[in-house]
Amino acid sequence: MTDIAAAAAVPQISPAADARLMLAAAARWRWWEFAVWIAALAAIVVFPRNLLLLNEIAILALFALSLDLILGFAGIVSLGHAAFFGVGAYAAGLLGKFGYGDPFLGLAAAAAVAAVLGFATSFLLLRGSDLTRLMVTLGIALMLLELANREAWLTGGADGLQGVTIGPVLGLFDFDLSGRTAYLYSLGVLFVLFLLARRIIHSPFGLSLRAVKQNPLRARAIGISVAVRLVAIYTLSAAFAGVAGALSAQTTQYVSLEVFDFIRSADVMLVLVLGGVGYLYGGIFGALIFKLMQDYLSAITPQYWQFWIGLVLVILVLAGRERIGAQLTRLFAPLLRWRRA
C-alpha cells in the first residue's frame, strides 16, 4: 500500500506537457550549430577572394532550405520550385529597374509575390499522387518561363532584365565588385530566415507536419487539418524561395529567363540529396558541397563537370548515406579518442 500511495503521489506528466518538453529539447542549440554560423561569418576573412562564390552558396542554401520545408517535413515533391525563385527575382529586379531599389523593399515584395503564387497553386497539390505533384509544379514553372519570354517589354525576354539598380543596404553599404557586402547581406538574410524555419519546425505546427508526412490518413483521423497545414507550409516555402530569388537579382543586378529554368529546380533537388533531406542544415551543407564541386570540377573539365557530380550522386545512393557516415565515424574514431584523452 505504501508503494502504491507513493506512486500515486508522483505527479504525472500529461502528453501535451511531454510533447512540449520534447520540442524544447529538440529546439536547443548544439555546439556544432554555433560553429557552423561562426565559420560562415569567418569565411569573409579567410576567403576574401571567393566572396562572390560564397554569396552564391548562401543564396543556394536559402533556396534549398525553402524546398526542404515542403519535401523534408511535409512530403511534397516538386520539380518546379524555380517558379517561386523566378517570380521573386523579377519582383526585386523590376523594383530596382523602376527606381525602387531599396534592398529590403525588394525582399518584402519578392516574398509577397512568391507567397501569393504559392498559395494560389497549393490547392492543385492537395489531390493526386507524388507524380501528379511533380507534373503540376514542373508545368507551372514552364508556363512562367514562357510567359516571361513572351512579355519581353517587361522582363527583357531572352536578353534579360537589365538596368537594375539596387541601393545601399541600410543606406550605408554599397554593393561592391568584390562581393563583400553581397555575401554579408545574403548570409544575414539566410540566418534570419533559418531561425524562422527552425522555430516553425520545432513547434506544434512542425510536429503536426511530420505526422502528415508519415501518414496523412491517420493525421486526419486524430483531428489534424491536413489541407490547411500543407497550404500553409507550401506558401511559406514559396516565400522563402522568392527571397532567394530576390537576393540573386539584387546581388547581381541582373535577371535572366534562367531563373525559371528546369535546371535550377533540378540543381536544388541535387543539393538536398547531397546534404540530406528532413533537417534544416541539409540545404546548407548540400549547397556548400555542390557549389564547391561545381567550381572545382568545371575548372578541370568545363564540358564534363556534371558527369562527376552525377557519379558522386550514384555512389551516394548506392552506398547509402548511413553506411558512408558509419565508415567515416570508424575512420576518425582514433582521433576522437585521442582528443578525449
UniProtKB/TrEMBL annotation:
One of its GO terms (molecular function) is branched-chain amino acid transmembrane transporter activity. This is Branched-chain amino acid ABC transporter permease. Pfam families: BPD_transp_2. It is a multi-pass membrane protein. It comes from the Bacteria. The keyword Cell membrane applies. Keywords: Cell membrane, Membrane, Transmembrane, Transmembrane helix. It is found in: Cell membrane. Coiled coil: none annotated. InterPro entries: ABC_transp_permease, LivM-like. The chain crosses the membrane at residues 29-47, 59-92, 104-126, 182-201, 221-247, 268-290, 302-320. GO terms for cellular component: plasma membrane.
